[in-house]
């Protein structure tokens, strides 16, 4: 898709400039919602991510991240438990723990037929027969 | 009811449009629009910050407008379970967008789209770390974009919503959100920003007491590598100041609050297994009439277990009555204890009034269907299901009232 390509190439220099402390202020063009005339500009916000299509992480990889985040938080808080750094680190632990828990739930309910039949027990596919 | 000046003689079946922006070549516009002017005081509140809007705006055919529901709660407090119950009551299974980002936070069913407000993080994980702010902090969230997009969807126009990836902690490429019949915005801050709050047709806050939050997080995280009782406690405590400052105050705006507390049936119980759950329902909310027990407006204490119904230990106790909550008149229904047998649940359901079921036993049926969800045997599951039914009812009333409004729509 032409637009996607344009977005990628446009964005490349921006990322270099933007890495580092990211400002909470989102560029103006992005705040407006539907602006077809700014379509390319908006896409370029995400340009860097267009290159690598995200793939759902394996739950065990998330587990590593949780364990790592706990370690980081304990370290970050050893100096000053009231610092923003410490609080943000524990917040990351919460975020990752919640993500890991959701990933486990998702894994549990991957049998789509079973899920479907729960909602549509009368469907042909969901009939069970006894002799 | 928003009374509008509609410059057409008839709204239905097709809204005659006065102005139609020529955006349709991009496929954004799916519906026709009409111009209208607001003159009701409660639908338009200018912000003091100087955010200006024209005195008229463009809306879609009123009968197709999206109903917006807000659900607020902290992370790990049962929003996902509630969403699964809610979408189930509305009919059909809610699933992530097909063929989209596998880490998308959105759920879509025939009638409902649920979006996660984490998608409006303005700071990604690294950004928050550098600045030393939590996701609970408004500075980590883009309320301007949240408002613009929810408003745009409510007006019947699709938006390109960002995706916050909870695994990587980055903002992924956006996904297209088309206007559904019912839009649920769930997350940490659905009622934080006044502009977003004013877009909500109904709002719910899940208020989990500290004791129960701790118990739930132990259940969720103890098995996780790296976690210990200390780390779970430390995480809750570190986030608490921001939680108290930015999340908790939202409950005063909620039309319904589900409060989860430790039981009082077992003396000194701190296991957090048996729960006492309160459903606090605001009075005077349009299209929402609170559930009651036996006699509306009276104060009732009811132990259903006795001669007619035998319950397992520690039994079940209900209380109901009028109360005041942050200066609002409310009705409170409380359930302490848990259901251990099906007949207990049916017995209780048959004694509740105004639960907006379509047939006898619908609450029980919903609870049984999702008996594997957490809280299916206690007040959290019961009240979440009931709120689901109330929202379905609210939606149906809004739709019905719209089809009757053309005559009313006069200046």
UniProtKB/TrEMBL annotation, chain A:
Residues 99-131 are annotated as: Disordered. GO terms for biological process: negative regulation of reductive pentose-phosphate cycle. It holds the Pfam family CP12. Disulfide bonds join 77-86, 117-126. InterPro entries: CP12-like, CP12_dom. Keywords: Disulfide bond. GO terms for cellular component: chloroplast. Residues 62-131 form the CP12 domain. This is CP12 domain-containing protein. It comes from Morus notabilis.
From TrEMBL, chain B:
It holds the Pfam family PRK. Residues 68-266 form the Phosphoribulokinase/uridine kinase domain. It catalyses: D-ribulose 5-phosphate + ATP = D-ribulose 1,5-bisphosphate + ADP + H(+). The keyword Transferase applies. Pathway: Carbohydrate biosynthesis; Calvin cycle. It is found in: Plastid, Chloroplast. Keywords: ATP-binding, Calvin cycle, Chloroplast, Disulfide bond, Kinase, Nucleotide-binding, Photosynthesis, Plastid, Transferase, Transit peptide. InterPro entries: P-loop_NTPase (IPR027417), PRK (IPR006082), PRK/URK (IPR006083). One of its GO terms (molecular function) is ATP binding. The keyword Zinc-finger does not apply. GO terms for cellular component: chloroplast. It comes from the Eukaryota. Its EC number is 2.7.1.19. One of its GO terms (biological process) is reductive pentose-phosphate cycle. Belongs to the phosphoribulokinase family. NCBIfam families: PRK07429.1. This is Phosphoribulokinase. It comes from Morus notabilis.
């Amino acid at each position: 898709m032409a637009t996607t390509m344009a977005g990628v190439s446009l964005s490349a220099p921006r990322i270099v400039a933007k890495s580092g402390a990211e400002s909470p202020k989102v560029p103006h063009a992005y705040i407006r919602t539907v602006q077809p005339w700014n379509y390319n500009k908006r896409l370029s916000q995400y340009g860097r991510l267009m290159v690598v299509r995200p793939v759902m992480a394996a739950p065990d990889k998330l587990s590593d991240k949780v364990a790592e985040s706990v370690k980081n938080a304990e370290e970050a808080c050893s100096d000053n438990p009231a610092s923003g750094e410490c609080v943000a680190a524990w917040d990351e632990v919460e975020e990752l723990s919640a993500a890991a828990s959701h990933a486990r739930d998702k894994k549990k309910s991957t049998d789509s037929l079973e899920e479907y039949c729960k909602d549509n027990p009368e469907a042909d596919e969901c009939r069970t027969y006894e002799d | 009811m928003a009374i509008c000046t509609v410059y057409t003689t008839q709204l239905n079946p097709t809204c005659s449009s006065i102005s139609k922006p020529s955006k349709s070549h991009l496929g954004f516009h799916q519906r026709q629009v009409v111009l209208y002017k607001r003159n009701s005081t409660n639908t338009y509140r200018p912000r003091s910050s100087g955010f200006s809007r024209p005195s008229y705006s463009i809306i879609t055919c009123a009968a197709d407008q999206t109903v917006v529901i807000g659900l607020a709660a902290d992370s790990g407090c049962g929003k996902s379970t509630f969403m699964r119950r809610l979408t189930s009551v509305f009919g059909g299974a809610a699933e992530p967008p097909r063929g989209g980002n596998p880490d998308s936070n959105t759920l879509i069913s025939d009638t409902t789209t649920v979006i996660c407000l984490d998608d409006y993080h303005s700071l990604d994980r690294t950004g928050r770390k550098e600045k030393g702010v939590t996701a609970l902090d408004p500075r980590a969230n883009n309320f301007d974009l949240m408002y613009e997009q929810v408003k745009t969807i409510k007006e019947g126009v699709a938006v390109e919503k960002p995706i916050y990836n909870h695994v990587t902690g980055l903002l992924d490429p956006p996904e297209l959100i088309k206007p559904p019949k019912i839009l649920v915005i769930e997350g940490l801050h659905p009622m934080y920003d006044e502009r977003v709050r004013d877009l909500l047709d109904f709002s719910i806050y899940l208020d989990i007491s500290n004791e129960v939050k701790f118990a739930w997080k132990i259940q969720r995280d103890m098995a996780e590598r790296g976690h210990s009782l200390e780390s779970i406690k430390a995480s809750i405590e570190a986030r608490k100041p921001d939680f108290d400052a930015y999340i908790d105050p939202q409950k005063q705006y909620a039309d319904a609050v589900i409060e989860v507390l430790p039981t009082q049936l077992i003396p000194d119980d701190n296991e957090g297994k048996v729960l006492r759950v309160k459903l606090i329902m605001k009075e005077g909310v349009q299209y929402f009439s609170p559930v009651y027990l036996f006699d509306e407006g009276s104060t009732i204490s009811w132990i259903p277990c006795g001669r007619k119904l035998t319950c397992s230990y520690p039994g079940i106790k209900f209380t109901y009555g009028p109360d005041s909550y942050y200066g609002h008149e409310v009705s409170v229904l409380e359930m302490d204890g848990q259901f251990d047998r099906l007949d207990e649940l049916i017995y209780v359901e048959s004694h509740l009034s105004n639960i907006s079921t379509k047939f006898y036993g619908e609450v029980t049926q919903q609870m049984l269907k999702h008996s594997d969800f957490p809280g299916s045997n206690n007040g959290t599951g019961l009240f979440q299901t009931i709120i689901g039914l109330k929202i379905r009812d609210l939606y149906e009333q809004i739709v019905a009232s719209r089809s009757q409004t053309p005559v009313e729509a006069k200046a």
